[in-house]
Design goal:
Length: about 60
């Protein structure tokens, strides 16, 4: 019976390590995804500002 407890302990340890490994992979994935999303936002803001500036310049001409 002693070896059965040892095998269950090994199984639990392997399961915990596997979950931690998956957790690290997901953490890196979401971190990279958030960095990419953050780098795209300033471009959208710059495009909107450019559009506002164009409209203001058009109003000044008229």
């Amino acid at each position: 019976m002693g070896s059965l407890d040892f095998n269950i302990g090994d199984l639990v340890y392997q399961l915990i390590m596997f979950i931690l490994l998956l957790g690290m992979i997901f953490a890196v994935y979401f971190f990279v995804r958030s960095l990419l999303a953050r780098s795209n936002k300033p471009n959208n803001i710059e495009q909107k500002l450019d559009r506002i500036i164009e409209l203001l310049e058009k109003d000044k001409r008229d």
